[in-house]
Amino acid sequence: MSSTGGSSAAHSRGRAAERGQVPSREPAPPRGPLRSRPQPRSGRTGAWLRAAAGTAVLFAVVWWFPAEAFTSAFAALEPSVLAWALGVGAVTTVASAARWVVVARSVGLRLPWGRAVSDYYVAVLLNAVLPAGVLGDVHRAVGHGRYCGDLGRGVRAVVLERVAGQMVLAGATVLVLSTLPTALLGPGMGAVAVSAGTVTAVLAVGAVGLRLGRKRRPRWWRALRTSAHEARAGLLERGPSVVVFSVAALAGHVLLFLVASSATGVEARASQVVPLAVLALLAMSVPVNVGGWGPREAAAAAAFGAAGLGAQAGVTVSVAYGLLALVAAAPGAAVVGVRVLTAYLPRSAGRAGQGGQGRPNVGLP
To answer: Is residue 313 within 8 Å of residue 304, measured between CB atoms?
Structure first.
């Protein structure tokens, strides 16, 4: 009886895989800590080079513009502006977490809403304070993979979720191209061409790889086929939901940029600032920065200068946006604090309950 049920379940999973569907998977029982493979030396070198390039861009911006471009951003942080940052940040984070939930569940992973929002807050905070601007997403992916007992699928789900956001950002850039100043039309088209070319190259390489390895089906081909099935399940089959949440998250980022522009005293219509904000956000998405800083300020300076609003004003608005983004990510610090206390207090209580029975094991939470 049990063997028949097991064979039928395996047959169902096999038919689902042939149709490209990803079966739902509940968290596996804990089998000890999952360890990720050590990062290759070339990967570490590339990460350091990107961080160094972002630092160089940020240093150039700080050296070129007067101190008033930065002090004015700090002076604009009034309580009402900080309240706006927290409110807009909450909406943006919840929309991004909703996109993650949709993608993760579509590829067969369990992700509760509360965990998704709290993990996303922590990721946003780490992205804002650590180099490259993506280390928070790496932490989020590894943590979710360990929670579900499938590290690889957890990482791929985060990659798909972030790719969806980048595609919507690139699409928004295409929509605002016609409203950009003439001086920015060329760079804007170049940025869109690079994004579209990268996506096209990845799809082409994947299609060729699937075709070449179909006969022998090596390990890399099976991994590539799994990734393709997950991309179809997470992005194409749930496309409307993913696009809606991505647009909502992008609208939150643009609104925060508008709040920064208004707080710093820029006299311009919202319709004039929105295209400039999209360009600055596109520059910030390039993983050559220091917690999002560097390319964003350079792009904002160029965009505001070309629009006739002044390059210095662009730097001030971008710095104010970065500071407000830090404020919006502040709940992530509270999440980290609660988790540290939750992990530490049970151990402390356990050691206190031991009394004089042996030597307590003192360790970090």
So the answer is: yes
b/e burial code for range 131-167 (CB count within 10 A of at least 16 → b): bbbbbbbbbbbbbbbbbbbbbebbbbbbbbbbbbbeb
The two structure tokens encoding residue 20: 């490209």
Burial 97-112 (b: 16+ CB within 10 A, else e): bbbbbbbbbbbbbebe
- Reference 89, options 343, 348, 322, 328; nearest CA is 328
CA distance 192 to 285: 13
Whole-model pTM?
A: 0.76
Q: How would you classify residue 355: left for phi > 0, otherwise alpha for psi between -120 and 50, otherwise beta? A: left
The structure tokens 């070339």 sit at 42
Token readout for 265 is: 């005293």
* Tens-place pLDDT, residues 162-194: 989 988 998 888 888 767 665 555 565 565 565
Copy the structure tokens of residue 175.
């929509």
Where along the chain do its domains lie? Answer: 52-343
Buried (b) or exposed (e) across 256-271, using 16+ Cβ within 10 A? Answer: bbbbbbbbbebebeee
Q: Residue 96 and residue 51: Cα distance in Å, rounded? A: 25
- The more confident residue out of 191 and 160 is 160
CA 105 – CA 101 distance, rounded (Å): 6
Round to whole Å and give the CA distance between 128 and 323. 10
Q: What is the pLDDT of residues 15-51, one digit of tens each?
A: 444 444 444 444 444 444 444 444 555 556 666 676 6
The whole-angstrom separation of Cα 227 and Cα 167 is 18
Angle separating helix axes 41-64 and 295-306, nearest 10 degrees: 40
132: tokens are 């490259």
CA nearest 326: which of 250, 260, 263, 261?
260
Structure token digits, residue 142: 């590894």
- Statement: residue 13 has pLDDT above 60: no
What's the confidence (pLDDT) of residue 291?
75
Query: What is the rounded CA–CA span in Å between residue 178 and residue 168?
Result: 17
Query: Radius of gyration of the chain from Cα atoms?
Result: 23
Contact 157, 131 (CB under 8 A): no
